[in-house]
Amino acid sequence: MRELYARLKALYPLGELTEQRKNLAFVTVPAAHLRDTLLHLRDKEGFTHLVLLTAVDWLEEGQFQLTYLLNNRALACDLGLRVLIQRDTATMESIHDLWPTAATYQRELREMFGIDFPGSPRIEEEFILEGWNSIPPYRRDFDTLKYAQEAYAERPGRVTHDPETHMRLQMYPGQHPAGK
Amino acid sequence: MSFKDVLSPFTAWKHLFHDPVSIRNPIGRAAAPRYRGFHQNDIEKCIGCGTCETICQNGAIDMVPVEGIQTKQGDSGLRPRIDYGRCCWCALCVDVCMTKSLNMSNIYTWVESDGDAFRFIPGVDKKPWDDAAHGYRRPDDHQLTGPTRLREHMPEMEPEERIGSFAEIVHGYNVEAAKLEADRCVSCGLCVATCPTHMAIPQYIKAIRDGDYDLGVALLYETNPFSSICGRVCTRKCESTCAARHEGDAIAIRWLKRHIMDQVSDEQIKKVVGQPAAPTGRKVAIVGAGPAGLTAAFDLAKKGHQVVVYEALDKPGGMTRFGIPEYRLPYDVIDRDVDVIRSVGVDIRCNVRIGQDITLERLKSDFDAVLIALGLQDGRGTRIPGSDQPMVRKAVDLLRRVTAGEDIGTPRQAVVIGGGNVAMDIARTLARLQKKQYGEVKVILTALEDLPHFLADADEIKESGEEGIIILDSRGPQQVVIENGQVTGLKTWKVKAIFDEQGRFAPTYDETDEQFHPGTMVVEAIGQMADTSLLGDALTEQLAWQRGRLQVDAGGRTSEAWLWSAGDMVRGPDVVSAVADGHRVAASIHAAITQGVQQ
Amino acid sequence: MLDIFPPDRTQYPAKKADGTLDIDLTSGKYLKLWQGPNHPGITGNMSVELTVCGDEVVEGKTHVGYLHRGFEKLMERRTFIQVFPIVCRVCVPEPDFNEYCYAACVEELAGIEVPEMAKWIRAMILEMGRINSYMMYLGGQAGALGQGVIGQWTTYVRDLMLDRFEELTGARIYHMFILPGGVRDTLPDGFAGRMEETLCEVEKTLKDVYDVMFCNAVFKKRTVGMGVIDPSWLEPYGVTGPNARAAGVAKDVRKDSPYLIYDQLDFEPVTGQNSDIYTRADVRRRDVWVSVDLIRQILAKMPKSGAVMAPLPNVLHWQIPRGETYVRGECSRGEYGYYLVTDGSGYPRRINVRGPSYTHAMALLERMIVGCNISDVAALMVSLHTYPPEIER
Amino acid sequence: MTEGVHGIERLRGKTSLKEILEVATHFEESARDFYKGLIPKVSKRIRYLVEELAAEEQSHYDMFAALAQRTDIAAQVKAEIERTAADSKFSDCIHLPDLGDNPDDQAVLQYAMGREHAAMSHYGELAQTTPAGPIRELFVFLASEETKHKLELEKLYYETVHRGGGV
Question: Using the beta-carbon criterion (under 8 Å), do C313 and B146 form an inter-chain contact?
């Protein structure tokens, strides 16, 4: 994995290598160099299997992380390419021409995270959420619980009691609740 | 493709006359013994800690009050109600149940037309599977709430080392050890009701986990300005109702409290505590600079009142300083807590004895309110024959003199009467003095109670034993033996009687089992009482009393509108109870003097 | 590469060079037809929007979302232990891979070493689940071609295996038995004996299935040479599992990168050459024999005693340092994997479930369905062995 | 204390049941008066203790007074009975001690326990030497009353003096 990293590093401006296991590592790639890196890995290094393509929302840092996980079956090792893109613009180059199956991932990412991949087949078609009426739901600022409470009725008859509060009300009412 | 491919499919006919394998009616089919079906809860064992509700990722559990189950110490009185419309039968609730009261039966079929019937309180709403013998029970090594035992025993000095000096025995947790211990807490909050001053225990333990010590200090000071002191010598009733004790050891709440105080500098504590409110122009006099008096002083000063505390002895702290030996509670720790209390503007005047130097009448006329928090500074005596000899001493007097640095005439051999913490304190103090002076420990401690009923902490008993003190339980003092005008020892009889159902005790003696314990000094370390002579005869007669104590209302106010009383003299001996009382009384005084009730 | 994904298929609906629609629905030549979501020949809750010309399919679009529960989002809102009971629900017929992959991710990022005994029990559970999944498939594949009886037999042996699951894990469908740290409990007394009886029943049924389904002129007629996956498609479409092995590529995670205790077991991945529906069905049938053998090996080789759970911190406030990892396993349909990202808090930052159906039922099916006869669509879909919930999660 | 000497004189002369009842009545009465006299002497803070003791003795006195009114036991009351071994101790307690001007709670409790102990043994032995009948039941009852009371006092003593529960 170290040698591979050295070879890649000579060609592309990569970030630090994170070796998670001896057969799994992650590395950050600038968005502009992703396609070249992928092509090199696929065609020169035997990383022919696109395991998955997904996104992580680093809301606090204003970034989306796109993870392209590639597998080299002969060497039984995986390399995850991390691409950090701006959360507000949220656009990335499509790779459907490298792996046709990527088109599905990209369609889902557009729907669930609001990340656009211009030129990807059927990218504008609804994938899972027909008639969705809120922000892309897998973004961290989408509050699932709040949405559910607004969209659905709670079954009546449910009420619960916090033991600490209940004991205060039963055993020493009127006293200042500490730590609350 | 062959001819076989045409015929082969007809072999299916061979099953034509086989009996069907399906069960005609699955209702009532017995499930496997470890099947996860409807819940069972032993409501007598359940303590209503709500851990099951916390873990439930479906929000299927509500904690609800149940008729006939009282909220009491260590039991919230709540019981889990399960909504089977939400339950996913994962049994995490069973896995984290602190008492193992919650289990699952292997019954999974129940036909009912009313959907709401599937929301019930297991163990309370009777069901056919309540007594089912099989079902999911948490396997032995399936432990999800962390280790059941103390992660790390509090590092402390070895007996040989500590007996040679009065240095503090317990070292305190480091950050890592404290985090490990804090991790065991399930944050149920049952302890809060038990703590006399209702400290925010789960919250400050969380602050340790999060490493947020400023928050920790802020939480401690909400309810207890004696946190460094309580972090060492609190009677920690909270630990007796800790949910973790059902699995193993209670969380070391006391040591965790101390850890927070140890981590934060004096300046930072004062910053967190903050400055008092704008002056109100009201004045309060407090007699006695012990935990109750100083807690009240702290609260009142923070509210902007001018507070003067009068202390008869030369240093503040009350019984925490003059009753508890240095090896348990170093004096600089007391200074530290007192210093923070001073920082909010409390004026502590030592060496002023009310009734002698200033009269109570004078305080009454000079201040808007007066609080007396005298403590229990007088030792009781057994009044057995021979106990009027000069070498028969009271433990509290000796401890006070040791703190003051006086020579108490350490005996080569001593006998202590009593089984409480004061008895342990004097025994261990004498042992240290003997070790210093004579190089060997010769202390015998006799107590009426049997060991399981000792009033002293288990740690104290254990450590006393380690330090070479001989502890004899169930011994009733009969006579101090005098020969040639000198004390030579104590004669005791065996105690037969035991505690009754109400926990009350009337010792009866077996006269045939008599022992003699040699010693040139006998120390009585039994009960304590308050010296209320400062009230004077007239005021004593004027005040209302309640079974030997000043009669006070819920806020600590006596029958005289200008006078409040708090602490051990009202509540009995306990630091943290005195702190709690200080808060109550301060609130009452504040309400009274700001509403113009006074004058 | 691009020749297998012709440029004219990258735009839907496809357009000719002059800008007119390639498939002009107004011409009267085409018919739009929905197969599913309620259709006996569909694999669960999904549908295919077919455009047919006569009885030939000219275009197919997979529609999912009928079963979307937002699992990945739900997981982000739960503590690490609270995620454990919901992961199994991502895949109904073979839930245990979710439990295993999730647990393994958490263990890796939290630095927990799983006891040896737990690894063996985990592997056995995964093989038991594999048999069940294949049994459902065999019934479905035969059913799609009108052979109802196979489904009855395979459902019967699946039920026997569910009995074994029940006595081992305490549940039949969603076992919730493999959790971070190990497994819940040890094997019940006498389990190996009862498992052997069940395995014998599996073998007996497999023989019957072979005689009635595989040595069957009608089945052969309908499936041999049908729905071929070209070996060159495997990498572009991310094809894994039996779908790839039937094309002659011995892709099997158990062998390629052995997990749990698979390096201590003796087996060879089952492969086929023709890559058609028949071969894929046959690879799966033979794979059941492998699983039966593996379970026997596991029961014979596993330790006789030992802990099944590693000590965990208090799960009520379990925090895991920042990190990311991916753990995969070979499920009955191919590569199943969990991608877990942690941020130091008590909750996962992101969990992505990589189910094999995601690529098989979407891009691959849409590619394969073109040119297929409408009556073969059901058999073709089933032959890819897809479970829709792992697509939409 | 002249009253005490007087009591002993009276006890010595009379060994019939009637006489013993008279002495006992007097015993309760004098104790009540003793406690009543003590009330103003003790500090107000422990006055409750002396008041309770006085009330207890009053209730026993009332019982004897009611007994004296009954006619159904008149015949038995005249019967001679054996002087019991505990008798002397019992009479000792009529010999009321001087607790000083301002006795504390511990001294009062010690005195009260001693008194209850003597009464308990005395009634107990009287019950044993009295023929079965209402009188014997009366002694059994009195013995158990005094025993209970003594036990209560012992518990109170333990809690006050040994457990140090306050003032």
Answer: yes
Contacting B with CB below 8 Å, chain A residues are: 155, 157-164, 166-168, 170-172, 175-180
Angle, CA of B128, B130 and B131, to the nearest 5°: 100
The string of pLDDT tens digits covering residues A140-168 is 999 998 998 898 888 888 899 999 999 99
- Shortest alpha-carbon distance between residue C142 and chain B (Å): 12
> How is residue B110 written in tokens?
């129940």
CA dist., res. C107 & res. C179, Å (int): 10
Homologous superfamily of domain range B379-499+506-527: FAD/NAD(P)-binding domain (3.50.50.60)
B195 pLDDT higher than 50: yes
C236-287 pLDDT, tens digit per residue, is 899 999 999 999 999 999 999 999 999 999 999 999 999 999 999 999 999 9
Q: CB–CB of B532 and D45 under 8 A?
A: yes
Closest CB from A158, A163, A170 relative to B189: A163
CA separation for the pair C271, C249 (Å, rounded): 7
Q: Could you say which DSSP state residue C360 is in?
A: I
Looking at residue B582, its pLDDT comes to 95
Confidence label for D3 from pLDDT (cuts 50, 70 and 90): very low
The DSSP secondary-structure symbol of C7 reads G
Contacts of B71 in chain A (CB under 8 A): 166-167, 170-171
Q: What is the pTM (predicted TM-score) of this model? A: 0.87
What number is the ipTM of this complex? Answer: 0.83
* Domains contained in chain D, CATH given: 2-162 (1.20.1260.10)
- B116-147 pLDDT tens trace: 999 999 999 999 999 999 999 999 889 999 88
Residues B582 and B566: their CA atoms lie apart, in Å, by 6
What confidence tier does C41 reach under pLDDT thresholds 50, 70, 90? low
Would you mind telling me the total number of residues written for chain C in this entry? 393
C-alpha–C-alpha distance, residues B162 and B533, integer Å? 40
Domain B281-377+556-594 and domain B379-499+506-527 have a common topology:
yes
- Chain D residue with the nearest C-alpha to that of B384: D110
- Three-state DSSP string of chain D: CHHHHHHHHHHHHCCEHHHHHHHHHHHHHHHHHHHHHHCCCCCHHHHHHHHHHHHHHHHHHHHHHHHHHCCCCHHHHCCECCCCCCHHHHHHHHCCCCCCCCCCHHHHHHHHHHHHHHHHHHHHHHHHHCCCCHHHHHHHHHHHHHHHHHHHHHHHHHHHHHCCCCC
Cβ atoms within 10 Å, residue D131:
9
CATH number of B39-131: 3.30.70.3270
Q: Could you tell me the end-to-end alpha-carbon distance of chain C, in angstroms, rounded to an integer?
A: 30
Q: Which residues of D87-113 are buried (b: 16+ CB within 10 A; e: fewer)?
A: beebbebbebeebeeebbbbbbbbbbb
Q: Does an interface of 3+ CB pairs under 8 Å exist between A and D?
A: no
**pLDDT for C13:** 52
Which residue does chain A place closest to C391, by CA atoms? A128
Q: Find which of C107, C234, C235, C322 to mutate to test the A interface (most A CBs within 10 Å of its CB).
A: C235
Which CATH code for domain B281-377+556-594?
A: 3.50.50.60
Query: Going by CATH, does the domain composed of A2-154 fall within 3.10.129.10?
Result: no
Q: What is the DSSP letter of B563?
A: E
Extents of the domains making up chain A? 2-154
Nearest to C316 among B9, B21, B145 (CB): B145
Architecture of domain B159-272: Orthogonal Bundle (1.10)
Cβ–Cβ below 8 Å for A178 and B219: yes
Contact B62 A160 (CB under 8 A): yes
Q: Out of 3.40.50.2300, 1.10.600.10, 3.90.960.10, 1.10.645.10, which CATH number does the structure's domain C80-362 have? A: 1.10.645.10
